[in-house]
Amino acid sequence: MSRNSCNAALSSESAEQVASQSAQALHTPAMLASVLGVSLARIRSWQRRGLIRPVKIVKRVPYFDFPQLATGKRLVSLIGQGISPAALQKKLNLIQRWLPDVSLAELSVRIEGNSILLQRQGELLETDGQKRLDFGEDPIDFRDSSLPAAIPITPLATSLESVQQGNSTLQDLFQLRCAAEQHEDAGEIDEAIQAWRMFLLVGGPQAEICFRLGELLYLAGDSVAARERYYVALEIDPTLVEVRASLGCVLMELGETDLAIAALQGALIWHENFPDIHYHLAVALGNAHRNSEARQHWQRFLALAPTSPWSEQARINCERLND
Question: What is the rounded distance in angstroms from the CA atom of residue 230 to the CA atom of residue 17?
C-alpha cells in the first residue's frame, strides 16, 4: 500500500468519529512547544501563570486552540525582548480585574523603548480597565517601579542549613518554590534543579514537582536522572499520562525500547485518545520492527491530530511502513 492507504484510513467513518471527539485542530503542550520552539517546561509555566489557557482538559491533559497558539507566539516575541513572564502575568491580572475576558491573544502589543503598549480594538488599555485614546501619553510599562519587586529569595545554602538542623518552616518551602520558579523563568536550569531538589527535601515527594524536576533534568541533558524522577512521579500518581509520555520518550532515547513501549501502552489505559502517546508509541514500535502495530498507531495519531505540527512526519512514516 501507499500513502493512499493512510488517507483512506483517515477518511473512514470510524476515523471521522474518533477525530470529531478528539483533539482535532487542538494542540497538546508538547505540540505547542514544538510549534513555538520553546521547552515543555516553559509551556507549563505559561499555563500555570494564566498567560495561556487550555480550551479543554481531558484526563488532566490540557489542549490549546489557535488563539492560544497566537498568544504563545506573542509571548515568545515579548520574552525575547526582555519582558519577564512574571511581569506579564501581573499586568494582565490588573487588566483582567476590569476586563475579565481579555487575553493576550486579542491584544495588539507595540514596544516603545522599555515600555509596552497594550491595544484592544485600536484603544490603549490602562491597568484599571480605562481606555486611553491619546497615544502621546505615557504607555504601560511592564518594567516600571509600580510592579512589585521580585520576592527576596533566601540563599539556598541558608535553606539547606535549616533542613540539616531540622528547622525547616513553611516559609522555607515558599522561598524554595519562589526561587525555583524564578530560576526557571530566567532559564537558569541548574539553579532551578537545585531549588526543586531542596523543595522536595523539605516538603516531601510530590508528583507534580517530581515531573517538573524531571523535565528540567532532561533539559540539562541528564536523561537517566530524568527517567528516575518520572518513575517517582508515577509511583505517587499513576494517572499522570503526560509523565508516562515523557518517560516513554526518555526510555527510547536510552535504548530501552521494550520498557518504552510498555510505558506508552500503559498511558493509553488512562487516556486512549491522547495523540502524543500514539505518535511516540508508533515510533517505538517501528524501532522494534513491529511495523503492523506501528502503522495502526500512525493512523490513529493522524485521525486524532490531523493538523498537528507532527502530522506530515506521521504521514511519511505511515507511507514508508506501507511500501
Answer: 33
> Model's pTM, two decimal places?
0.74
Name residues whose C-beta falls within 8 Å of residue 159's C-beta, 6 or more positions apart in sequence: 168, 172, 175, 176, 198, 202
- What is the C-alpha to C-alpha distance for residues 273 and 282, in angstroms, rounded to an integer? 14
Band (98; pLDDT cuts 50, 70, 90)? low
The CA R_g of the chain, rounded to the nearest whole Å, is 22
Cβ-Cβ contacts under 8 Å for 237 (sequence gap 6 or more): 207, 243
Average pLDDT, the chain: 78
pLDDT, position 284:
96
Amino acid identity, position 44 = R
pLDDT computed for residue 161 by the predictor: 52
Identify the H or E element spanning 251.
helix 241-253
Compute the distance between CA of residue 88 and CA of residue 142 in angstroms, rounded to an integer. 7
CA 70 to chain centre: 15
Q: How many CB atoms lie within 10 A of CB 25?
A: 13
